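2024-03-11 09:14:02 INFO worker-7 job=invfold-0412 stage=load source=structure_tokens
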């Protein structure tokens, strides 16, 4: 509700008094389809940075690397678990490649 209040130039208290629950739910759904506010501006700026970097011959990186903040933050525990799973997958692929190299009879 804070983002909507900021966008509409109202206080959260004013919006709380003026919006029904149904209307608030519709605004939330709209924001998921077509985000507004600072995150949208950050995403647009990230696209410009990415294009400018690539145009000038820089390394092509994922768009998320140009964002100022993670749009989907997770707890340190979840981040550590994801890193652990990625490392396990990397090691599994590396082991499979070495096994093929050593035991492939082609």
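2024-03-11 09:14:09 INFO worker-7 stage=emit residues=106
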């Amino acid at each position: 509700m804070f983002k909507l209040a900021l966008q509409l130039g109202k206080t959260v208290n004013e919006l709380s008094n003026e919006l029904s629950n149904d209307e608030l739910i519709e605004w939330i759904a709209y924001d998921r389809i077509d985000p507004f506010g600072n995150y949208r501006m950050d995403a647009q700026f990230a696209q410009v940075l990415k294009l400018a970097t690539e145009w000038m011959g820089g390394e092509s990186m994922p768009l998320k690397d140009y964002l100022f903040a993670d749009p989907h933050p997770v707890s340190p525990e979840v981040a550590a678990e994801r890193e652990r799973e990625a490392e396990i997958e990397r090691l599994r692929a590396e082991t499979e490649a070495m096994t093929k190299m050593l035991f492939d009879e082609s």
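2024-03-11 09:14:09 INFO worker-7 stage=report msg="Residues 81 and 87 are 10 Å apart (CA to CA)."
2024-03-11 09:14:10 INFO worker-7 job finished
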